[in-house]
């Protein structure tokens, strides 16, 4: 009689780490030469130090908005990352679609709220209401249609009008890279690289059909937004400490004057 192995029950506390959404280091840019954001190979030392303190920081979900012409692939790249699926017959987004993706970054929970906005002009007034308080703007264009790259600047300008207090992280993302020949791909990347530098965006080329660089793009977005959130917390703590030191100094001088 063959020896039968008894399957051990899985502990309820055991968790499987999703390599797509578990980040231990800062993912690199698509091209280090084409990014206005961090070019370091890891998270800033002060970020790591802050996260190792006993007091665990809490983070609000990061709002990410996708803008660009109709049918450039905004919905496709979001679905490829969130559900690992691709459909060639997506219906045009009506108004706004929403996806939520959770990450574990350096042992801390961090969420991306992804707002996929309609690309038709008639929906701009609706989509505009969702532009506010964006931490990341993903400006999307179709690499097989040069006109959509020209439109990208207008879409970004519109989104920035709703985010004037602080400039969000900006990414210029070319989709449908699989539709181009090698020569066409290289030519479009040169044009897009110049456009990215002009609008101060980090450039990426992706393909939702093949999955090319889609996961890496979202990992980069989450990591940079997370690092920015930690640095903002550090800035707030520094400001609070300075304010407390000033108040302590004033009180000390006041008591000194009384006893003199």
From TrEMBL:
Pfam families, A to Z: Ras
Cofactor(s) the protein needs: Mg(2+)
Cellular component annotations (GO), alphabetically ordered: Golgi membrane; synapse
Membrane topology: Lipid-anchor
Broadest EC class assigned to this enzyme: hydrolase
Main location: Golgi
The enzyme's E.C. designation: 3.6.5.2
Gene Ontology molecular functions: G protein activity; GTP binding; metal ion binding
Localization, UniProt: Golgi apparatus membrane
SUPFAM superfamilies, A to Z: P-loop containing nucleoside triphosphate hydrolases
Keywords (A to Z) from UniProt: Golgi apparatus, GTP-binding, Hydrolase, Lipoprotein, Magnesium, Membrane, Metal-binding, Nucleotide-binding, Prenylation, Protein transport, Transport
Reaction catalysed by this enzyme: GTP + H2O = GDP + phosphate + H(+)
Signal peptide limits: none
A biological process from GO: protein transport
Family of the protein in this entry: Belongs to the small GTPase superfamily. Rab family.
Protein's job: The small GTPases Rab are key regulators of intracellular membrane trafficking, from the formation of transport vesicles to their fusion with membranes. Rabs cycle between an inactive GDP-bound form and an active GTP-bound form that is able to recruit to membranes different sets of downstream effectors directly responsible for vesicle formation, movement, tethering and fusion.
UniProt xrefs under NCBIfam families: small_GTP
Protein name from the UniProt record: Ras-related protein Rab-36
Lineage: Eukaryota, Metazoa, Ecdysozoa, Arthropoda, Hexapoda
Recorded name of the encoding gene: Dper\GL12421
